[in-house]
Design a protein that fits this description.
It is a single-pass membrane protein. The chain is mainly α. Helices cover about 95% and strands about 0% of the residues. It contains two helices and no strands. The longest helix has about 140 residues. The chain is rod-shaped, with a radius of gyration of 64 Å. About 0% of the residues are buried.
């Protein structure tokens, strides 16, 4: 009986293996027919999405690097332009300063020349007034000394000789 149980048990075990293997094969065939395409399609879509995400990330990184490079170039260009503007402004200020100083020197020179001319004119006027006064005093003095009036010609000759003597002394 023991042998019978062993044989039955082997048959049952062997039968179970055959049934399980058959069920497994049927399950594989059903999965392949109905689900395998969908599963592989999902994996392919996921792989494609990951690939696209990686490509998009690389493109975004390249754009960011280009943008950073462009901004750096613009910043450098702006710095150079600011430096140029500053140099131009400094040069303009120096030129204006020099022109203002030159104009001031010219104005001072002109003022001095006018003042010198005015002083010379005032001096000449003062000398003329002094000559007239001296002439008048000289005529009065001469009239008192001589006792009579001098005519204009004599008076003028007397004044001129007196002034010549004053100028030589």
């Amino acid at each position: 009986m023991f042998i019978f149980l062993e044989a039955a048990s082997e048959n049952t075990l062997f039968g179970d293996v055959i049934v399980s293997s058959g069920a497994f094969l049927i399950l594989l065939l059903l999965i392949k027919k109905f689900a395998w395409g969908a599963i592989t399609n999902i994996f392919e879509q996921r792989a494609e999405k990951i690939s696209n995400d990686i490509d998009n990330a690389e493109n975004a990184k390249k754009k960011a690097e280009e943008l950073a490079k462009r901004r750096q170039e613009e910043l450098s260009s702006s710095r150079q332009e600011a430096s140029k503007i500053l140099k131009d402004a400094t040069a303009t200020a120096n030129t204006s300063s020099e022109k203002i100083i030159a104009d001031a020197h010219e104005e001072v020179k002109n003022l001095k020349a006018r003042a010198t001319e005015e002083i010379a004119r005032e001096h000449d006027d003062a000398l003329g007034n002094v000559k007239d006064e001296i002439a008048s005093i000289s005529v009065k003095l001469a009239e008192k000394l001589i006792g009579n009036s001098l005519d204009e010609k004599s008076q003028s000759d007397l004044i001129d000789s007196y002034l010549d003597k004053l100028g030589n002394e």
